[in-house]
Structure formats: C-alpha cells, structure tokens
Design goal:
- The complex is a heterodimer of chains A (about 350) and B (about 100).
- With about 350 residues, chain A is mostly helical.
- Chain A contains 14 helices and 2 strands, in the order ααββαααααααααααα.
- Chain A has a two-stranded antiparallel ribbon with strand order 1-2.
- In chain A, a hairpin with a 6-residue loop joins β1 and β2.
- With about 100 residues, chain B is mainly alpha-helical.
- The longest helix of chain B is centred in the C-terminal third of the chain and has 18 residues.
- Classes of the chains: A mainly alpha (about 350), B mainly alpha (about 100).
- At the A-B interface, α1 of A face α1, α2, α3, α4 and α5 of B.
C-alpha cells in the first residue's frame, strides 16, 4: 500500500491537507447538489411556493425584530401593571393576580374548594367545642379544650343571654324533671359526649363531681366542661343533678375545696372521662395513662358504692390531691374507668391496677 | 502523479467502505440545516426561480447559481469541524 510510504513530512503533509480539503469540497458539493434537486423537484411539482401568500398577509406576519417587543410585535409585559376590576367582588386586582383571585372569589377551581372544606372543618370543630365541649378523638385535647374554653368565654360574651340554646336547656330542665331516664329516646353517642342514659348512678355521680353535666337540649348529652363552665349556670347544674340522681342529690362541688391550679387539670379529667366513656372498651390502653394528668387515688376503686355525699367529697378531695401529684398513675385512671363501667366485676379491679403498676 | 492519485483512490475507497462518507454527509447536512444555511440557499433559489421563470427552470440553472454561493456561505465552524473529522479519519485509517 502506497499509503505506508507517506509519513507526515513537509511536502507530504501539504498533500495530505490538500486531500482533506478535497474530500471536504466533495462533501459540500454533494450537499449543494442535493439541495438543488430538492428545490427543482418542488418547483416542478408545484409545492415550492406554497408557503407564500399574497403580499399583504406576508407583511402582516413578518418577523419583528425590535427591542422591547417579541417577534410577533407584542409588548410582552404590557399588562403587568394594569389592574382589573373583579366582576364578583368589585375589587381592583393586579392583572397577574387576577386569575387566582377569580378562582377563589367564584369558588371554582381545585384549590378554592379545598380551602373552603378545610375552613368548614375547623369551624365545625370550633363551634362544637364551644357548644358542648365535646371530646374529639384527638390526643391534644388538653390544650385544645383549654384554648377553646377561653375562646368560648370570649364568644359567649358576644352571644346574647337569651340565646335559644340557653332557653332550651332551661325549658328542658323545668319540664322533664319528672320523667325517668328510660323514656328519653337518647341513643348512645356516635362520636362525642356523654349520654347519661347508659350510666349507672355511681358513674353519673362521679361524672357530675368533676363535670358540669348540664344536658344540652339539642344533643341530649351532658356537658363535659368544668363545673364552673360559663355556658351553664349553677342552677342548671343543680337541676341536672337533681334530675339524674334524685332529690337527695348533693350540692355541686364546693369551689373552695378546689385549688386554683386544678382548674387546669379538670379539663384533663373531663377529657379523660369522656375519652374513657367514648372508647367503651374493656381494654384500658396505655395511651390513657400517657395523655392525661388527672387522677384519683387508689382508694377510689375500693369504695365505688359509698354514699353519694361521701364519695363526692372523696372525689373532690381526691381531685385536689390529684392536682398536686399530676403524673400519678395510670392505675388510678383505670380505676376511674372501672367505676364508670359498672359491669366490670370488682375482682378484676385489683388485677388490672397491678398491671398498670407494672407499666408505670 | 499516479502515486498520489492511487492514494486518493484508496482513501476514497476506504471512506466509502467504512461508511464514513455517508456519516460525514449526514453530519454536514444536519449542521447546515441547523445553522440556517439551507434556508438562506432556498431564499436564493426563490430569487433565481423568479428570475428565470417558474416553468423553465432547470437543474443545471440551479446548480450553476447555487453551488458557488453555497460553498461560500458555509459557516466556518461547520467547515472546521468537518475538516477535523476527515483528518482524524485519515490519521486513524491511513496506516
């Protein structure tokens, strides 16, 4: 092969370069020829000038090459600073924000329905906790209920004293004192609240010592808030106690017996009670012990059938003590549930408390 | 010189056999379209055709008009790249 005889020396190099250039020229000529054939065929077939129209249209769509303007001749940020009037709310909205605003304003589009649903849900939660302080399944009940109580107090001052709910509960109290529990067609709860129908007298008693207990007319449930909750008067509470426990019902827990610090614990007790009531399961889960601070002493379990007065006094005194020793025991909580659910045999009480002692 | 012409023939044969010629052709065509050379040439063609009349234009007319201009209008970058590739091919397969 003669190629081997061509090292990259001076004259040969130029020959090589010439060769390279020749090859290149050939390639370019090929490309030109290809183009010519293509164009010629297009001309002869009649589709070469198809993309051209009359002169006027051509001028109209000519490519524009000025600064500040796109190739169509439009100024691209022309509408940025303009404001439009919303046809719905009659406000002046910036043009770039107009579409999202309209979406929310008219209530159409994905996000607006989502936001509305969320708002409704939180409003429901708020109004629910205000009306009855019912327990929602959340574990953050302590903070939530306390906060809602504060809000409820504030809103209550806005509400009139003659609100329908108030008068309804008064009516109920006056009218139905005589009727027994069984005549009331109240179902057991569907999510929240305590229905007094299913509680035995002892449970009712213990509930009423720590809770307001006033039966709401429209949900037929006992109010689970503090015995000094602002939504119900002491008169109502007394009437409920008379209604539920008979004419010999004791007086409400004496405010003096209750230490101030307890006011914070009582919501815990209420939520605990309500949660226990709601769960209605024989298993007392450890979450009870974890989440709640209120407690009663062990001694409570031993005297579930004591007379109302003494047990009430015991409970109130115990709650005071419980306020002092906040984390004191899951077993005591289990005792509360034991006393509430009367069906549970008392023999099991000590065994269960021992289980929880182990947990602790 | 016959030596040289033989050498050229060999090179060309090698280019064709290895498919490198086709590859180079395609590469050149793509680059020319990309850089707008083809549209330029087409516009020039339109002028030529309008000049010569749509009915009577022949391939020869076009070739004569287009090729010199086409050669001149190839951008430098495209030219350099092609030359580089040809040289590389030669260096690789010449020995």
């Amino acid at each position: 092969m003669k190629m081997e005889d061509m090292p990259l020396s001076g004259p040969d190099n130029t020959r090589l370069e010439a060769l390279v250039h020749d090859i290149y020229s050939e390639l370019v000529d090929d490309a030109c020829l290809g183009l010519c054939f293509e164009v010629h065929r297009a001309v002869k077939q009649g589709y070469f000038f198809l993309d051209e129209t009359d002169q006027e249209s051509m001028k109209e769509f000519e490519i524009v090459d000025q600064p500040g303007v796109d190739i169509f001749g439009q100024v691209y940020n022309q509408w940025k600073n303009k404001e439009c009037e919303c046809p719905n709310c009659k406000r002046l909205i910036a043009a770039s924000r107009f579409a999202p605003h309209l979406e929310k304003c008219l209530g159409m589009g994905r996000n607006s329905s989502r936001i509305a649903n969320r708002r409704l849900a939180s409003n429901n939660n708020m109004s629910k906790s205000e009306s009855d302080q019912e327990d929602n399944d959340d574990l953050n009940d302590n903070d939530w209920s306390y906060g809602a109580e504060k809000k409820a107090k504030k809103r209550k001052s806005d509400k009139s004293q003659n609100s329908p709910r108030r008068s309804k509960s008064i009516k109920h109290k006056n009218g139905d004192l005589g009727s027994g529990v069984s005549t009331e067609p109240y179902k057991y709860n569907y999510n929240t609240g305590i229905s007094y129908e299913t509680l035995g007298p002892d449970e009712v008693r213990s509930l009423l010592t720590t809770q307001c207990g006033v039966i709401s007319e429209h949900t037929k449930k006992m109010c689970t808030r503090s015995p000094r909750c602002p939504q119900h008067s002491d008169e109502q509470r007394r009437a409920v106690r008379v209604f539920l426990l008979g004419p010999s019902a004791p007086s409400l827990p004496d405010p003096d017996a209750v230490v101030e610090s307890e006011s914070f614990d009582i919501p815990d007790g209420q939520t605990l009670m309500s949660r226990l009531q709601w769960e209605d399961s024989p298993d007392i889960s450890p979450t009870d012990s974890a989440s709640s601070k209120a407690s009663t002493n062990h001694s409570d379990s031993k005297r579930p059938k004591k007379k109302k007065r003494t047990s009430l006094g015991l409970n109130s005194g115990v709650v005071v003590g419980g306020g002092g020793g906040g984390g004191s025991s899951s077993s005591s909580q289990s005792n509360i549930s034991l006393s509430i659910k009367k069906k549970r045999p008392k023999l099991s009480a000590p065994s269960i408390s021992s289980i929880y002692d182990d947990l602790n | 010189m016959s030596k040289e012409s033989r050498m050229r023939a060999t090179v060309n044969q090698k280019l064709a056999e290895m498919g490198e010629r086709e590859r180079l052709k395609e590469l050149l065509r793509a680059k020319l379209t990309e850089c707008g050379w083809k549209d330029q040439m087409k516009a020039h063609c339109k002028e030529v055709i309008k000049e010569k009349g749509l009915e009577h234009v022949t391939v020869e007319d076009l070739v004569v008009e287009i090729t010199p201009k086409g050669r001149a209008l190839v951008p430098d970058s495209v030219k350099k790249e092609l030359l580089h590739r040809i040289r590389a091919f030669l260096a690789q397969h010449a020995t």
